[in-house]
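Sequence, structure tokens reproduced for absentees:
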Amino acid sequence: MISVILTTYERRGPLARALTSVLAQTLTDREVIVVDDGSTDGTAEFLETQPVTSIRIAHSGNPAVARNAGLPGARGELITFLDSDDVWQPTALTELAGALLQHPDAGFAYCDYQPQVSSMPKSAGAIDIFDPLLRTDFLVTGGVLIRRSLADAVGAFDPRCSPAEDWDYWLRMAARARGAYVPASLISIDSPPDSLSRAPGGAIYAGNVRVMRKALRWCLTNRPASVRLARECLRRNLLASARYHRRHRAFGRSVRDLVMVARGR
């Protein structure tokens, strides 16, 4: 069975579309857990009419908190997460699960999506994608299917890394297991103007820097061959943060970022 953990906040319309795509999956051996992060737009009432397990939490504004709320009740041997802005193709779960069946040495499967990115590793078989993930977060929430054993080993999403908590999770996942690529666009993603990745104040840049610092610390202890790359990626993200804050006239923050670049941390 596959556990689908769908998280939402104030997305009554998009949630209905996302949920429709879940219930239309050709693979029917699944459970659907919807975590509502304190919506006030009728989401709770809508979910009462749907064949799902609904969990309502006090509003956190943090996707990591919402996803973590859904994990304890997940009973599936495979686990996937979906954002309420996104929509699956009908065969998404079938094809992702098929990749894991075909590649028992893979801990997770991942697929193409629309709109697509060009940096995704697209090799056949189960491959190590940790280094490519250090360079850029090319995975999307609903485009990854994870074995339960790997999800248990990775643990919870880190709320401190929001809104880049998914990148941190993927890196911790890829540090432990290989991934199987599915050469098909199985999900359409959306990034509305009020998404957390577009939050004012440069929150995404701060999140990215935290993720890179965590990855560098892990590499220093566990993966020496990737230390140089991790340092380069941290430097690049610090520079991106410095440029953002300079454009927005937050000169003190920009200078702090540049000092960190000079210190290499």
Notes: The first strand starts at residue 2 and ends at 8. Residues 200-263 form one domain.
